[in-house]
Structure formats: C-alpha cells, structure tokens
C-alpha cells in the first residue's frame, strides 16, 4: 500500500473528511487530496501533525522508499491483505506482533489442528 493510500485509509477509518483533516493540520483541502493521490509529499512538520491527528507513528506515514534490507511485500501477502481488507490485516498483524514465542507456537498449533480437522470433513 502506498503512503497516500495509507493516509486515506487512516483518515476514513477515523471518520474524517479531507476538509476536517486539513483544518486540523492547518493545510488546504486540496493538499490532503494531493497527499492521498501521491501528487505531493508532506514536509516533516506536516507529517508530524498528520501523525498526531491520526494517532499513528510518523513512520507509518513515511513517503520514503523502503530500505534495501527490508524485503518488498510479495504478491501473496498483497492478495491476502486485499482479500481481508487493510483494516483487519493491520489489527491482526499488530496483535500477532505482541504475542510471546509461546503464545505464537500455541496459536500456530491451534490453527493447524483446526485446518486438519476441516480437511478431514471435506
């Protein structure tokens, strides 16, 4: 997902119009539209105001290209996110990130056990 799409998703998720967000960060409505379409990139102070209003780390809104050490999201992950919707994917990934190793192992065991039970009934 591109930074402009993330911005739009977060804005809509908080039930903010472009005008309402623009007023809160002290820019014109057309500027928000340009950010969301990728025509314009916010400067650092604007990025920080967006971060504060949308209540997300500024790093989630960064308009920089990914670091070469971070692998690009592959097609399967992109399709999974599209299929479940970005909001659900973000919620799930945030929860999984908080799991301890033991909790993660338990969850994976539970998922695979249920998958095997379902496949046996098909």
TrEMBL record:
Looking up Pfam families in the UniProt record yields: HTH_19 (PF12844)
Q: Which Gene3D superfamilies does the annotation name?
A: lambda repressor-like DNA-binding domains
Presence of keyword Amino-acid biosynthesis: no
Name the source's superkingdom. Answer: Bacteria
Query: What residues does the HTH cro/C1-type domain cover?
Result: 7-61
Keyword DNA-binding, does the record have it?
Answer: yes
What's the protein here called?
Transcriptional regulator with XRE-family HTH domain
Show the taxonomic lineage: Bacteria, Bacillati, Bacillota, Bacilli, Bacillales
